[in-house]
Specification:
Elements lengths: L1 H7 L1 H9 L26 H8 L11 H242 L4 H85 L3 E6 L15 E2 L10 E6 L2 E6 L2 E3 L5 H16 L3 E8 L5 H6 L10 H16 L4 E13 L2 E4 L5 H4 L12 E3 L5 E3 L5 E3 L2 H14 L2 E2 L7 E2 L2 E12 L4 E11 L6 H4 L4 H24 L11 H5 L1 H4 L4 E8 L6 H15 L10 E3 L1 H8 L1
Parallel strand pairs: 1-5, 1-16, 6-15, 6-16
Antiparallel strand pairs: 2-3, 3-4, 7-8, 7-11, 7-14, 9-10, 12-13, 14-15, 15-17
GO biological process, one term: microtubule-based movement
Protein name: Kinesin-like protein
Family: Belongs to the TRAFAC class myosin-kinesin ATPase superfamily. Kinesin family. KIN-14 subfamily.
């Protein structure tokens, strides 16, 4: 049996089939212990082969007992192996039946699956047809993506180059790291001193918080003061109106009394002349009477001698009696005239007293009127100051509106006027109304300048803002409006006419005057000027002495100027020319140089239209030797290019490209203002060079003022309305409170805390 098993190879062939071509181990099949005297038996392939190939060794060929025992032991082991194989075969048969049942179930399941697969196949065919239809569109998109992928690969190559540069930089930084670690130890020593300083700062911070709460209370009181001031102002204005009415009535009475006094004086003069004439006549009558008496006496003497003259004497006596009667009548008239003169003198004296009283009351009313006007002016100054304080605390962008005068050839009739100015107390000097198609649009800004306002009037309103730049603040003033509305005139003025100088030269004159004045207080200032323009989304250096670097034939600068913002919020333009200046004359020369390099062109709306955004930057560094205080301020004065409609400007060629670039950058500015007004998380400053350059001015930490320039011409009403709406949106933006840039030495700071 053993030889048969060995010959037919059942054992060798059973193991691969039973164990899936794996070695048979004790864990692959159960071991039988039935009839075993040696306990549970476990067999492997090696055990079976060793059992079959085993040769029984005998110590002696003739010791049959030993041979029988060995043979019996060998037979027992063979039986045990055979029994184990039988049990294993039964297990395999049972497993085979189970697998057949499972196979039948699987075949049924496969039949069901084939039916469902056919259904799914039909559905998939429909889907494939749809996918084939979509495949063509996807192929088109794939071509686009491949082109984008090629561009991305190019950028990736550039990135790799940049990465290599970064790795080189990293190697250099590792070298510097060793140096920095050495410096770190010294820095740790300084940290201990800084910790002490920090404690002092915490104390100072608590005091600042108390001071802040006090300022908040002062602000509330200021609001109440503004309200009281407004009420007092309305009362004062009403009193002024009443006083003006009384003053006018008294002036009318005074004029009437003057007229009556003049009549009385004329009557008096006539009466005096009449009295003088009567006195002369009386004197003549007296002389005649005396003469006649002498003649009578002479005649009486002669009558005694000559009785022939009696008739003559009687006639003379009758004449004398009639003359006496005339004298009496004239004396009565003289008495009546003297009485009339006395009455006229009394009325004249009363009129004079009344006139003096009215004169005194008029003087008193004038003084009260002057006091009321002074109070009104002081109240207006206080209102402006408090309004500016509130605007600074709110962080709003201040907006001034300026309306240019009508030019020759423009419609100036009353019927064509579309702009008016409200006269109410709330909107006086701050409101502007615009009529379009019979509809009235009302706007209110921080200040509105009428066409008759001079350049000096404009500058007076912004002079305090310019002073803030010397105090260490960032200040930005920019002019916005359609082309031909007077932006460049507002910022630059008219060359050669000192009275029409613009804001930029006036600001510089004020800064140089103030710098000279502050020298007595220990301040020294250094001023640096740079000027650039953004032309067709390209930055150009207007102070560059290299003409090729300023402009090429196509108007584009060959040199690229990159805009950088540091952690402190300061803006730098790489490779831009910066000039140190010491007088306003030097700055005027630089302004003339920049004006010659700036891009201008002629359009249907403006003879000399600015075709770029002009940015004037003045960096101010101040140091006080006595207090060792250092301030850093920046003054940005910007003349934006005017928005225009192609249908009105008639731009073609280069002018068309310029117009499209200008309108695009101004549209980006509108998007930024819209995002700021809605307080969105993302503000698209990078959409244009203009908005990216203005990011510190619009994004906070700066005192910003916008001039919106509009034209009163009726044909430009639509553009004026758009400009006013944009200005109102700018005025509503809260960009944060500006901070003063001041540096003080720590020792001085500790002393100030103590």
């Amino acid at each position: 049996m053993v030889g048969a098993m060995a010959n037919n190879g059942r054992i060798r062939s059973a193991f691969p089939v039973a164990n899936g071509s794996k070695d048979l181990t004790s864990n692959s099949a159960p071991a039988s212990t039935a009839g075993s005297e040696y306990g549970p038996a476990e067999f492997t392939r090696e055990d079976v082969e060793a059992l079959l190939n085993e040769r029984i060794k005998y110590k002696s060929k003739f010791n049959y007992k030993e041979r029988c025992e060995n043979m019996m032991d060998y037979i027992k082991r063979l039986r045990l192996c055979i029994r184990w194989f039988q049990e294993l075969e039964l297990d395999y048969a049972f497993e085979q039946e189970k697998l057949k049942n499972a196979l039948e179930l699987n075949e049924k399941h496969c039949g069901d699956m084939e039916v469902s697969l056919k259904n799914k196949e039909e559905e998939l065919n429909l889907i494939i047809e749809e996918l084939r239809k979509n495949f063509e569109s996807v192929q088109i998109q794939l071509v686009k993506e491949q082109t984008e992928k090629l561009a991305a690969n190019d950028s990736l190559g550039k990135e790799k180059e940049a990465r290599l540069a970064v790795e080189k930089l990293q190697a250099a930084l590792t070298e510097e790291l060793g140096k920095t670690q050495g410096e770190l130890q010294t820095a740790n020593q300084r940290i201990h001193a800084v910790n002490d300083m920090y404690k002092l700062l915490q104390e100072y911070n608590s005091s600042l918080q108390l001071y802040n709460s006090k300022l908040q209370g002062d602000l509330d009181e200021a609001h109440e003061t503004i309200k009281r001031g407004e009420k007092e102002r309305t009362g004062i204005v009403e009193n002024i109106g009443n006083l003006k009415g009384q003053f006018k009535a008294l002036q009318d009475q005074l004029a009437a009394s003057k007229v009556s006094q003049d009549d009385i004086v004329k009557q008096k003069d006539e009466l005096v002349n009449e009295i003088v004439g009567l006195k002369v006549e009386i004197q003549q009558v007296k002389d005649d009477r005396d003469r006649h008496i002498m003649e009578v006496k002479n005649l009486q003497a002669e009558a005694t001698k000559q009785n022939d003259f009696k008739d003559i004497i009687s006639e003379l006596e009758s004449k004398r009696s009639s003359q006496n009667k005339e004298i009496e009548e004239l004396q009565d008239q003289l008495v009546a005239s003297e009485r009339k003169l006395q009455v006229a003198d009394l009325s004249t004296f009363e009129k004079i007293n009344e006139f003096e009283e009215q004169k005194e009351s008029i003087i008193e009313l004038k003084s009260r009127l002057e006091e009321a006007e002074l109070k009104l002016i002081e109240g207006e100054k206080l209102r402006k100051k408090l309004h500016n304080t509130i605007q600074e605390l709110k962080g709003n962008i201040r907006v001034f509106c300026r309306v240019r005068p009508l030019l020759s050839g423009e419609n100036s009739s009353e019927e064509a006027k579309t702009i008016s100015y409200p006269t109410s107390l709330e909107a006086l000097g701050r409101g502007i109304d615009l009529m379009q198609n019979g509809q009235k649009h009302c706007f209110t800004f921080d200040k509105v300048f009428v066409p008759s306002a001079s350049q000096e009037d404009i500058f007076v309103e912004i002079s305090q803002l310019v002073q803030s730049a010397l105090d260490g603040y960032k200040v930005c003033i920019f002019a916005y409006g359609q082309t031909g509305s007077g932006k460049t005139y507002t910022m630059m003025g008219r060359p050669g006419n000192p009275e029409e100088k613009g804001l930029i030269p006036r600001c510089l004159e004020q800064i140089f005057r103030t710098r000279q004045y502050l020298r007595s207080q220990g301040w020294k200032y250094e001023l640096q000027v740079s000027m650039l323009e953004i032309y067709n989304e390209t930055i150009r250096d207007l102070l560059s002495t290299n003409k090729e670097a300023v402009r090429t034939d196509n108007g584009v600068s060959p040199q690229k100027y990159a805009i950088k913002h540091d952690a402190s919020g300061n803006t730098h333009v790489v490779e831009l020319t910066v000039v140190d200046v010491r007088s306003s004359r030097e700055v005027s020369f630089l302004l003339d140089h920049a004006a010659r390099n700036r891009s201008v062109g002629k359009t249907a709306m403006n003879e000399q239209s600015s075709r770029s955004h002009f940015v004037f930057t003045l960096k101010i560094s101040g140091f006080n030797e006595s207090t060792e205080q250092q301030v850093q301020g920046v003054l940005n004065l910007i003349d934006l290019a005017g928005s225009e409609r192609l249908s009105k400007s008639g731009s073609t060629g280069d002018r068309l490209k310029e117009t499209q670039a200008i309108n695009k950058s101004l549209s980006s500015l509108g998007d930024v203002i819209f995002a700021l007004a809605k307080k969105e998380d993302h503000v698209p400053f990078r959409n244009s060079k203009l908005t990216y350059l203005l990011q510190p001015c619009l994004g906070g930490d700066s005192k910003t003022l916008m001039f919106v320039n509009i034209t009163p011409e009726p044909s430009s009403t639509g553009e004026s309305l758009c400009s006013l709406r944009f200005a109102a949106r700018v005025n509503a933006c809260e960009i944060g409170t500006a901070h003063r840039q001041v540096n003080v030495k720590p020792i001085d700071y500790r002393l100030s805390l103590g």
